[in-house]
Design a protein that fits this description.
0% helix; 114 residues; seven-stranded mixed beta sheet
């Protein structure tokens, strides 16, 4: 299984970015897909997740600004990020959780300038 994340970049505060994470390979017992982020000197934190049943979950800091979605046919999960703030600057990692283990993508960097 491989996860290929893309879509990061440099954006001004108030701008938008859309992250994509394409999965190759099948996963038995997939439970959820999601996005985490890690800012310099900080621990990795959950940004948003979507369960196999479609239930979404967001960090309080991104509610009303970020939207997670998925395209099952393309085995891809997206993170639409609007109204970006400098504090959103981080490396964003996609994650797939099964009943056995977590899978991680390589990370895509998001920088929001003030």
């Amino acid at each position: 299984v491989q996860l290929q994340a893309s879509g990061g970049g440099l954006v001004q505060a108030g701008g938008s970015l859309r992250l994509s994470c394409a999965r190759s390979g099948s996963i038995i017992g997939l439970k959820a897909m999601g996005w985490y982020r890690q800012a310099p000197g900080q621990e990795r934190e959950l940004v948003a997740s979507i369960s196999s049943g479609g239930t979404t979950n967001y960090a309080d800091s991104v509610k009303e600004r970020f939207t997670i979605s998925r395209d099952n046919a393309k085995s891809t999960v997206y993170l639409q990020m609007n109204s970006l703030k400098p504090e959103d600057t981080a490396v964003y990692y996609c994650n797939v959780r099964s009943g056995i283990r977590d899978y991680w993508g390589q990370g895509t960097e998001v920088t929001v300038s003030s």
